[in-house]
Amino acid sequence: MPYSHDQPDNAARIERLGTSRTIPRQQYSAKKVVKELNALLENPHYAARAMEISLIVQAENGVAVACDAIEKQIEMI
After folding, report:
1. Which of 22, 58, 68, 77 is the most exposed place for a label (fewest CB within 10 A)?
2. What pLDDT is recorded for position 77?
3. Is the separation of the CB atoms in 61 and 34 below 8 Å?
4. Is 15 helix (H, G, I), strand (E, B) or coil?
5. Where is 69: in which H helix or E strand?
6. For residue 49, which of 23, 15, 26, 77 has the smallest C-alpha distance?
């Protein structure tokens, strides 16, 4: 359930990736959470898609890319 700031955008992005389900704040209830969690756990597509995305993220070497970008910005100063 995205609440504020960047959470709605992040929720929309991971839902588009096929790895999550989102509960709108005004529809949040224990019954709805149970329903959505069951949908996530019972459908193997979500776990498979999460595994696919994890392999992409692992291959990115995000720390090195971030460090290179920071160093590039520092060089411009």
Report:
1. 77
2. 83
3. no
4. helix
5. helix 62-75
6. 15
Residue 33 scores a pLDDT above 90? yes
Q: What angle do CA 67, 69, 73 make, to 5 degrees?
A: 115
C-alpha 40/C-alpha 77 separation (Å) is 47
**What's the pTM value of the predicted model, to 2 decimals?**
0.74
Neighbours of 42 (CB within 10 A): 8
What distance lies between CA 35 and its chain's CA centroid? 20
Q: Which residue has the tokens 């529809």?
A: 27
The CA-based angle 60-61-62, given to 5 degrees, is 90
**pLDDT the model gives residue 19:** 96
Q: What is the 3-state secondary structure (H, E, C) of 32-47?
A: HHHHHHHHHHHCHHHH
